[in-house]
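Schema walk-through. Below, the input block comes first and the output block second. Nothing else is stored per chain. Lengths vary across the set, and this one has 1004 residues.
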Amino acid sequence: MNLKTKLILMLGLIFNLSLFAQDGYQLSGTVFDGSNMPVPGVNVIIDKTTTGTATDFDGNFQLEVSPGDVLNFSYLGYVSKSVTITNQTRLDIVMQEDTSELDEVVVVGYGTRKKSDITGSVSSVKTEELTAYPTSNAEQALQGRAAGVVVQSNNGGEPGAPINIKVRGNTSIGASSGPLVVVDGFVGASMPQADDIASMEVLKDASATAIYGSRGSGGVILVTTKKGKSGRLNVEINTTYSTQNTANRLDLLNADEFAQYQQSFNPAYVQGTEDMDWQDEIYTTGNISNTQASFSGGSDKINFYSSVNYFTQDGIIVNSGFEKFTFLNNVDAQVTDKLKLGMNLFGSRSTKDGVATQSSGSDAIGNVNGGGDDVVSLAMRFTPDRGIYDSNGNFTQNSVGDGIENPWAVANEIINETKSDNFRSNLYASYDILENLNFKTTFGFSTTNETAGYFKPQTFQLSTGGASIANLRRTNILSENYLTYNLELGKGNLTALGGYSYQKVTNERFSASTQELLSDSFLWYNLAAGHVETRRVTSSWSESEIQSLFGRINYDWDDKYLITGTVRRDGASNFAENNKYAVFPSGAIGWKISNENFLKDSNSISNLKFRASYGLTGNQAIDPYQSLAILGVTPSTANSTDATVSVAQEANPDLKWETSYQTNIGLDLGMYNNRINFSFDYYNIDTKDLLLEATTTPAYSGATDLQVFQNVGELNNRGFEIVLSTRNIVTDDFTWTTDFNWSTNKNKVVKLVNGADIIDSAAPGYFSGKDTYILREGEAVGLFWGHEYTGVYQGGAVPEGSALKGSYQEAGDPLFQDVNGDGNIDNNDQQIIGDPNPDWNFGFTNTFRYKNIDLNIFFQGSHGGEILNLTNVQLFNGDSNALTDVLDAWTPENSTSNIPSNKTRDREISSRFVEDGSYVRLKNLSIGYTFPQDLVEKIGMDNLRLSVSGQNLLTFTNYSGLDPEVSYFGSGGGDTTSGNVVQGHDFGNYPTIRSFSLSLNLKF
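--- output ---
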């Protein structure tokens, strides 16, 4: 080959190489998960080569590629993906979770377990479920999200209202049935904001809760807040604004209709000159503003997460509102290879502006108002033909019936403010003594300071003005120390846990009140200006301690057979000298059937596990000193009298814990690579040695009818739970997932004190003590108690089996079932007339995602529970305003009506006012848009999402009242135990609200 030929060949080669080099270029992109969050560590490899890279902390990658290359994206826990390169310079990828590989880690008491290795009944609630719509606390967001967990506000949509949670029904009558809340290891902590929560687990059976011993019978809610990660600083801002209105209103009589109604049985009634809709006067448009900013980051040695949150709500009743500021700070430091230190700080300040709803029978300064003088019931009762002021400039009074305060005055003139400060700190040190032996110690301290001020001016006509102030200071100290040991034994793995816990809670209370202040300018800040004979001062101090030893063993053999054993020994100062300590053991087994040879290669069944557990848990949620003899003080009523002391409670040296004996059988099934996941649980809970107050010796130290807590009673709860999650459609551009939970609980009173019924009233006090519920052996808890309504008397002979009541013997009067056949209706004819306990509850969520658009639809509901509509008892009584239904009441010309004739009668508790409370509610509907990543990066952000949503948009129910989700606790008020037995009563609740929200999420 001559030189010329060689030169030509060399030039051709160089030319071809240059052309090849021009084909290659730099490709950049980002990998996201199904929630549009960046995924770090994803392998990006050019197919059939070893050339590739991995995504950084923010999910970004860069790689030299050529047209026609095939990029393979892979990462543990996600479905692998392949993309052919054309000429694009930017490539954003969405990878979907692969549940066949993803083995979720679940928090359990004092540790974590893989979800596949859990033997107990545990429900996990996702962060996105807790933040689906704006709430003042995460407890409210839990509603409908976990099977067997019933969540309800203590007072409808009231801003800042406490939340009542039941896990698998009521396991007590006289003590609290609420679950134990554990936040970042602090037992008894207050719930953080939903945006700060990384995971929430609800422990339901004894295998899961027995590690908390005497406080586990009501279930346990474990909350883990967010932590920082290694990498650059991340900033996230979430802000939401909502407008709110009443979801429903009652159809009440206007002024003309009211006059017609009254004159039908009281011809002398003279119509007033006004036409008022009092609901318009107390209801307004409310709003919520909720903004949170969080900062997180760190290095290999230390990481942090900090957040601040500001929540404010103007209620839908005038002058009601709630404001809360919260901060959270988590720091974790890997000091050495063996030592890790951490700190959790939480603080909040809240101010609640309340108006009187669900009146408890008297106000804060001692005025007895009959349990019905709250703004909601007043707006229903007050006559519509009277204005706000009379001709003398005074507040008007009701023109019929009881003397009641003007609803506008109650809503606008009374000031009721509660300020609360909460602070919690929790420090921990974790040290690896050996490679498989770890010691962890924690020390926590929390304090709560709450001040409630109440002021009522002298402008009211029926009751005396005055002011009061009350203060509570609670401190909580917790120290826990435990060892965790892991060991491989052949094909098995052993994990052993053992520890010691000590906790002390101290409460200090003070209150003072007075009436007839010299000036309305003082509010509650100068009580000395009140009349000396009305001054009242009370104070108290209490302390309780609990110390515990606890242990747990988990043994897994060959990834098939699971055994869990747990025990806790608690000693509590709440109980008597003879029963300070108790032991609460539990055991559970699990069988991973899908890992057996006959199933492990199945194409349809990807997971099948059987679970069974049995154990004991306790309840010691009563006030301190209930086993001791207590002296009561009767305060002086004026300067010239002295306080007196008398015996208030008899001692019970044998008082001990309630104990729940729990059985749980469960089955977990995953099919088609876990595209379908199904879980089933059956449980039975026998709660014995109930803590009930009972009357003691007729004469004890000169006192009579003393009450003392005794262990006398037994309850049973049993039910089924079903959870179904499906990934219906999963493609690159479109996904559709469904989550469904359903649960049923049947409770029964097995044993009461001497077998005697407990009958009591939850009706407003001015109902003259009408009994409304009963506890009876062999029956469900809290059944309605009253007369069975049989129709309207048409005159002539009284139908067989029925009778008329008292002086109401005319045609058009109500008939009731004559139980004892004596021809008269009295207390001896009362019987069970309804059951407030629902047959089942459910939650149903569908989530759709198409490219950058997501849609979430969440339904929640209940079936079978009945409601005692005390509102209708009042509004059909003739001595107040009424529903428009009274216009169709019985008359000789309208004799087919089932509504008795219009007249003023005794308020009667009967089956006529018991209604079906079943409902299905569209709890949340939201649609969101995540802006494209290339656009977001151009404006210097990592993520930008905008969403709109609506809450409580639709409710499907046959209930005639304002809302089937009722929570009236009656004249006893909404304390921690009234919710155990007072269920399904409706009167004067703060209404449920309908909201429309706009939310913005920014990440930098």
